[in-house]
Amino acid sequence: MKVVCLPGDGIGAEVTAAAQDVLAVLAPDLELEDHLFGGAAILATGTPCPDETRDACLAADAVLLGAVGLPQFDAADVRPEQGLIALRKALDVYANLRPSRQGPVDLMVVRELVGGLYYGPKGTRDDGTVFDTLEYHPSQVERIAHRAFAFARSRRRRVTSVDKANVLETSRMWRQVVTEVAAQYPDVELEHVLVDAAAMQLVTAPERFDVILTENTFGDILSDEASAVTGGLGLAASASLGDEGPGIFEPVHGSAPDIAGRGVANPAAMLRSAALMLEHGLGRPDEARRLDAAVDRALERAPTPDLDGTATTTDAVAAVLAELDR
Question: Rounded distance, CA 88 to CA 66, Å?
Answer without folding.
Answer: 15
